[in-house]
Amino acid sequence: MKKITLFFIILISVTACKKETKTEDTNAALKAEVQTFLDDYTTTFKKLYYDSSEAEWAANTHIVVGDTLNAYNIQKANEAYAKFTGSSDVIEKTRKYLEQKDNLDIVQVRQLKTILYAAANNPETVSDVVSQRITAENAQNETLFGYDFKIKGKSVSTGDIDKILRESNDLNSRLETWESSKAVGKNLKDGLENLRNLRNQTVNALGYDDYFSYQVSDYGMTRQEMRYEMNKMVKEVWPLYRELHTWARYELAKKYNAKVPDYLPAHWLPNRWGQDWSALVNVEGLDIDAALKDKEPEWIVKEGEKFYVSIGFNPLPASFYEKSSMYPLPADATYKKNNHASAWHMDLENDLRCLMSVEANADYYETIHHELGHIYYYQAYTNPNVPPLLRGGANRGYHEAIGSLLGLAAMQKPFLAEKGLVDANVQIDETQNLLKEALNYVVFLPFSAGVMTEFENSLYAENLPKDQFNQKWWELAKKYQGMVPPSDRGEEFCDAASKTHINNDAAQYYDYAVSYILLFQFHDHIAKNILKQDPHATNYYGSKEVGNFLKGVLETGANNDWRQLLKESVGSEMSAKPMLDYFAPLMAYLKEQNKGRTYTLPETF
């Protein structure tokens, strides 16, 4: 009896072992098959991605009104890219492999999900719609970046417009300048409606409700979950924003010798969209513009690179300087360029470029550190452990967070003193410095998490009618920013479309709100746990330990779970607490300043 039992035990064990071996062999064969698919896909993808990047680069750096060559090249390159990434064969195979994801390596699964996500933007089943969308996007960009802004009949650059809004005390001049900055929207309204329809139709083909939901899904979230997170951010900063809003109404009324308004007239503010009010405060002893006035733009760029090298990153490749478009065009140039600062990872390898119009001022000093943050992020995750398909940020907000983090670090007094841009012994008004920072970082959240996010949600998910575009924009600006137009802005205008991202970086502006929350989490950790310094007065320069921490965050690219990476890096989930803690000392000062003043925003959001 025992022998028979033992025999059956042995038989069962041998059978189980054979089954296990067979299963392992089957899984190994599946993994090998999937890897071959991924390798073949990646080879073609990289080539087409590079072709598309080159066409887009040319179209952004050499804009000639009436010239159709750029449009033709973009159409050709992007249609080839779209045809491949959205092919029915790619979609079918990817879905088939993902059905067996439990038997695949996690890195393979991440790549397959990336492929399917890209396919949803270009599905072959609606190739005619994809082609129409590409054509429409090219036309919208040409209209936007080729627009001739004018004041009193004279052509001006967006840099000229921004300078007037930052510096002028003449309300008539400010009004004329602000209205000029919005005039481009009229020409973009029909195109925006068309793009909305085409973008929605494109992603509908793979089961997404709308383009906004599609873009949000990249975070592993639903549209409503993202909106909830964004409104939560606004609610958390609202008490401080309400104090800043009240302070600004009274201070600006004094500045312009005008009656205190209930809501901030848009042309009173130093930014075209009211997203940054920091120019309202000058901190004595921290006059960076004065320190930079004799510097060349090239010096600004090199200083940015020196900082990253000082914390342990490699120097930029020579090709970066050879291929980038870093400086304003000559006044007599026969073409235009996109002046919006951006960083490009052209080939997902080592072709790194920046598109900017650097001038020797404080704004660009901060901006170069921000944009090089993107470049060094690209460089960090271009390594053998990150497949080309996963060479992106842990989420889209991470990329902006790293750029903004290094921009913040480069503007703190100890850092500036290290660089010789301020006197290390100069006494500055710390409260005014904190106020200036709040007018940048805090003021930005109601715009990004509120106005932009809710407008694009209405545009794509709720199919906002074209004859309500401007009404909705100003309704949201009043609700979230406490800002109103100088006068009635009817539906002949499309002021939302004057914002670049509405046209060509659609349904993703919450990325920037996420980035501001993340940057304060990273900064708080670096200041307290690495540098052992006050978060309000840090100096990252020369700290290899800071560099090592940043490399640990950057070098995995998108080959991770972004929530887990954040928790491992700073010890907590995404939270506005470090940002609120940073600005907590400002509340008492603002409440004192606003004593006896009338608040027009509600106490709670």
UniProtKB/TrEMBL annotation:
Domain of life, source organism: Bacteria
Keywords for the protein's UniProt record, in alphabetical order: Disulfide bond, Glycoprotein, Metal-binding, Signal, Zinc
Active-site annotation: E371, H501
Record: residues binding Zn(2+) 1: H370, H374, E400
Residues annotated as binding chloride: Y219
Ranges in coiled-coil conformation: none
Entries under CDD domains matching the protein: M2_ACE
GO terms (BP aspect): proteolysis
Pfam families: Peptidase_M2
GO cellular component: membrane
Binding site for Zn(2+) 2: H370, H374, E400
Gene Ontology MF annotations: metallopeptidase activity; peptidyl-dipeptidase activity
Glycosylation sites per record: N78
Protein's name in the database: Peptidase M2
Lineage, broadest ranks: Bacteria, Pseudomonadati, Bacteroidota, Flavobacteriia, Flavobacteriales
